[in-house]
Guanine deaminase (Prauserella rugosa), 507 residues
Amino acid sequence: MALVIRDADVITMDDHTGVTPVRRTIRIEGAVVDLVAADPADVPIAQGDTVVGGRDRLVCPGFVNAHTHSWEYLAKGRYDNLPLELWMLYAYPILGARPLPPDLVRLRSALFAVESLKSGTTTLVDDVLETPGQDLRQLDAVFDAYDEVGVRANISGHIINRPFVDTLPYVADWLPADVVAQVRAVPVPTTEDYLAFSTEAFARYAGRGDGRLRYMVAPSGPQRCTDDLLAAATELAVRHGAECHVHVLETKTQAVTGREFYGTTLVEHMRRIGALSPNTTLAHGVWTTDDDIAALAEAGTCVSHNPVSNLKLGSGIAPWRRYHDAGVPIGLGSDGCSSSDTPRLHDVIKAAALLHKVTDADHESWPTVAEVLGAATRGGARTAQLHHDVGTIEAGKQADLLVYDLTTLAFAPRNRAELQLVYSENGGSLRQVVVAGQVVVDEGRVTTVDEDSLLAELRERLPGVQAEQDRVEARNAVFHETFDRMHRTTAAEDVGVHRWSGTPAAR
């Protein structure tokens, strides 16, 4: 039995019609788009097929969240006015965190997937980090939750294999010696440990969710991982046709880190050790130089742009136009629910369309709606190594799509639907979400799990979760003054790249 969406306005994002809505009828057979036709008469209807009228409906590819952290979901709305390195003290605690039980990981992941689907994200690139470390039972819980909810995802084993005080400039010299010794005494995985874990994960999750769910490697960043691990993880990703997801040059501090640690930029360091590849995606890429961008383009390396998170953490503004002009593939990400406080990609899409209009006086260089929607769909699919499967609506691709109601206020008056999708719509007009041919959201309700039961369980467990967060934050406050000093020092340094205006006042 097939699902047919008849005579809808469709943004295919393919090479022929792109972002311009066209009247099309879509036939979905199983998990795959079987046919996209201009004339409904060209679409066969068999007995038992479900036919949905497309009048007053806008259909587009499901959004790809090209960089997010579901594990931050329990810290949503907890922090404000903290730059990345200070925020990480509390959201990614250095000391004292206890392993999260798998049943809580599963609850957290299910809620994150539900909220993502209900706002139009059908694919997640989920960089999952557990503190103090990740095991396969925790990773199983993420895969299990996503399998049940019905989202598509790349799910990582995030890895840091250097003591955290040795991943930042200056702090190891400024902190009390006993605190530094305490951090360095915390065991870190070896390269062999991570490769063995990842090799097992690739085998363990192969074909999971009928191919919707895939494992990816995620070395946290070139300053947080040893060179041998970063190079080996890149090679492993290429061998498995998977994504290698790495945080690079999110903040000015990281630009200073490259200079202090390697005498060059972090991108150039990655190039030298063989850690740039077509399978590599850099999360953020805010403080890149022109030479960095050229190196990324030559290697076929992608960038996930996360404007909302970069704004909230004061990290800076990524060089959108220079990436596009160089041919670097770009996706859009929400980042985590503690750094942007929502997984909604509609917010990110609008921010990306607006933010870069103030970075260049030449209005002809401003982001176009076609570029922004392209980044949210086929660009994100490219960063995730899923561009052969999703990102466009065309025959042979996976049937991941969104159906919007064009009779809502967001589309009134109905002028250019593609512009209104970017600038006017916030997800409130979304009526159906389809992943792999299955309607997983229908009229605002997820069809696969009981959302109310999930929320009830969260409310029951939240006091214990928050008490643990309070305890860990209090223990890690010992680093705050030194990390604040480090942030202010690096913010005042000249790295030859300008991605923000203003410098934090000295104390």
In short: The CA atoms of residues 106 and 141 lie 5 Å apart. The chain has a mean pLDDT of 97.
